[in-house]
Design goal:
Aspartate Aminotransferase, domain 1; single chain; alpha/beta; 2 domains; Aspartate Aminotransferase, domain 2
Length: 369
Amino acid sequence: MMNIPFVDLEAQYVSIKADIDLAISNVVEEKIFIGGKRVQEFEREFALAYGVKHCISAGNGTDTLYIIMKMLGIGEGDEVITVANSWISSSETITQAGAKIVFSDIHPEYYSMDESKIEEKITPRTKAILVVHLQGQACEMDTIQEICKRYNLLLIEDCAQAHFSEFGGKLVGTFGIAASFSFYPGKNLGAYGDAGCIITNNDQVAEKLKMYARHGALVKHQHKIEGINSRMDSIQAAILTQKLKHILTWNQGRIRAANLYDVALKGIQEIIIPSVRPDTLHTFHLYVIQARQRDKLMEYLKVRGIETAIHYPTPLPFLEAYKYLNHHPEDFPVAYNLQSEILSLPMYPELSESQINYVASSIKKFYSE
């Protein structure tokens, strides 16, 4: 029996151990743990890799969404449309900014925001659309951009699961006014703790974002506004700078693994393998299948040493936190119906063909029994 973790962070660390150890050692020797040249270097390198003017580092991905909305003037009386199936950061930060969440259903094939359902959610109070590029799959950005332009809406991108994914040959995160990234350890580009950043090409917005994340000051003790404290520490910045050198290769490793899964799982009638939206580069932060008897399959795989996960077991509108919105299953039929079927299989660049075949054969065995 094999033991296959959902994510193997040790395998990644071992592959670049010398560089990571040196990066951490350098920060400890320099004794500059907040700010300084290591953080500046990461911001510069990430902006360069993305081809944008500004990268503003932050303490975590959730903070970056909140900072974006606050500094774009989103607040009381405004509505923000976002997707029904995502991590709660996408919605809770809308409320924290003072605005009202308006959920939209997911695409039945690609699991991200269904672009055909957005317009029916727009009201005179709609201020922005927050798209979430879930699982490494880009949303249909041509349509969403056109909707934002027609209704004069702000477009914000949550790229927490889609580092360097593409739509139409263009990197996600470069379509809207600003984009949020998380570097939680399990992400395609992950720190060894919490960290996040924002990218934008707008000079004025960039200045506001940076100021708000640094207690409202661009220069220490010169506080122009009240802000928050959301800073990337120097050790995480140094680690991310080293990892950034490998992200495109690692993404290709994920795509390779996804292709192997596609072949190995082909022909199993009880599951549906993930679809890739045309004209996109899907970086497979997650490899999500639809599976009959999902919970029993999950338990069966666990017994066979295979760790899986569910993203997400309850769509956002049906969480207790949003009970006050009084939503019903028929409001988001796709998200509601898929919640009992979606299952995330192990996915990381170092997955071997033999590991993938073991997962696939175990799934076949479960249904044959």
